[in-house]
């Protein structure tokens, strides 16, 4: 993804900078062409201009035309010999003659290097109009003459080279900058995907491991039954009980996995209504009265009337998870405290139970799927490490959060915070 995005950015930069360079080059070329083909009228008044080819002297006029660039003109006869030089430059006659000779041999135009500069030139037919001071002495309209114009393009070529170098440096710098930006945002964008992928792999590994245990129990005891077929059912009741226990455990795990899958994909099925939390909790607690009574657990309720806008079914499931956990992990003759209150824009539900508690080392991991502390693995059967993970998923879907505090061998406190009037929108 980084390589593809960087490549796309590189193509865009190359295209943009190439367009800038080509546009500048064409504009400069057009500008030079206009300067080279700029029409001028040169009228020389007074003095005599000779067309004698034996003459070594040519008339020279020094002038500067604003906006025309650095240039010089030469008027040559039909043999290419300079008749007149229009120049404001300090060049020798030999240099002018050399330029005229080169241009006459290459009349299609081009570039000549002279005096450390580059000159682009054109050669075109011209009519020289020489005025000697009286109208009857005008001469030259029928004489075959040619105009050579030389334009200094050294600076313009240097500007093009400088522009190309600047674009290359800026392009490399921008590409490096965008590369770092792409890496940063790509890593941020892919981090959740990577985490989800890792969790999925871990989930499959853990689920396979959890299913392997009951399947192993069932398979082992079935093999024992096959090896003692002559015995009666009552004589093999031990092995059948083991099979039943393994089947129940596997069935419970499969149901939990289905609950996880349902929780992960139930956002679109949210049904938002006004729910009275204290009443919902009272009903949920009544379903576990027998379990709490068996362990002589004292239930303390301190619930204010609080109404939240949420999904009642999911909230009921969330409460069931924490109440069920309390019935399992609260010690005998212990206490389970439930409180409900409204603070600001939140409804706060607190579950507090006595018992073994959770160590600081285990506390950050308890919401991970299939995670169970060593004490839970050793003491409690029927625990799969999925309840709190499901609870966390439900809380996220309802726009809430769960906080946990615990003191080893004393208490565990779970605090659920739900928005009172959160507006949910389906994805």
From TrEMBL:
This is histidine kinase. GO terms for cellular component: plasma membrane. Its main location: membrane. It is an enzyme of class 2 (transferase). Residues 206-422 form the Histidine kinase domain. Keywords: Kinase, Membrane, Phosphoprotein, Transferase, Transmembrane, Transmembrane helix, Two-component regulatory system. GO terms for molecular function: phosphoprotein phosphatase activity; phosphorelay sensor kinase activity.
């Amino acid at each position: 993804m980084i390589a593809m995005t960087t490549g796309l950015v590189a193509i865009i930069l190359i295209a943009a900078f190439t367009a800038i360079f080509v546009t500048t080059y064409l504009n400069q070329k057009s500008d030079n062409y206009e300067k080279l083909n700029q029409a001028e009228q040169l009228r020389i008044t007074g003095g005599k201009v000779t067309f004698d080819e034996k003459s070594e002297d040519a008339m020279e006029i020094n002038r500067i035309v604003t906006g025309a660039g650095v240039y010089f003109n030469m008027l040559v006869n039909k043999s290419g010999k300079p008749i007149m030089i229009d120049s404001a430059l300090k060049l020798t006659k030999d240099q002018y003659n050399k330029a005229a000779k080169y241009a006459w041999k290459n009349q299609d135009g081009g570039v000549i290097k002279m005096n450390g500069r580059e000159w682009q030139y054109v050669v075109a037919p011209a009519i020289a109009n020489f005025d000697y001071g009286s109208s009857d002495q005008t001469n030259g309209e029928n004489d075959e003459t040619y105009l050579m114009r030389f334009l200094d393009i050294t600076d313009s070529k240097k500007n093009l080279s400088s522009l190309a170098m600047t674009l290359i440096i800026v392009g490399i710098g921008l590409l490096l900058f965008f590369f770092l930006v792409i890496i940063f945002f790509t890593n941020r964008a892919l981090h959740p995907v990577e985490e989800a992928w890792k969790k999925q792999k871990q989930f499959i590994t853990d689920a396979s491991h959890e299913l392997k245990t009951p399947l192993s129990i069932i398979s082992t005891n079935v093999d024992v039954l096959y090896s003692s077929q002559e015995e009666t059912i009552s004589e093999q009741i031990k092995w059948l009980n083991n099979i039943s226990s393994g089947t129940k455990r596997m069935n419970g795990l499969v149901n939990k996995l289905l609950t996880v899958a349902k929780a992960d994909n139930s956002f679109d099925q949210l049904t938002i209504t006004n729910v009275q939390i204290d009443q919902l909790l009272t009903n949920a607690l009544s379903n576990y009265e027998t379990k709490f009574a068996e362990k002589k657990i004292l239930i303390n309720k301190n619930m204010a009337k609080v109404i939240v806008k949420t999904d009642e079914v999911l909230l009921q499931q969330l409460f069931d998870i924490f109440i069920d956990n309390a019935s399992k992990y609260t010690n005998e003759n212990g206490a389970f405290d439930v409180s409900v209150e409204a603070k600001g824009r939140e409804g706060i539900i607190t579950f507090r139970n006595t018992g073994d508690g959770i160590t600081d080392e285990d506390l950050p991991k308890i919401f991970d799927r299939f995670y169970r502390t060593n004490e839970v693995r050793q003491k409690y059967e029927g625990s799969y490490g999925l309840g709190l993970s499901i609870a966390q998923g439900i809380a996220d879907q309802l726009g809430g959060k769960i906080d946990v505090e615990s003191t080893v061998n004393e208490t565990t406190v779970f605090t659920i915070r739900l928005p009172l009037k959160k507006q949910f929108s389906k994805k």
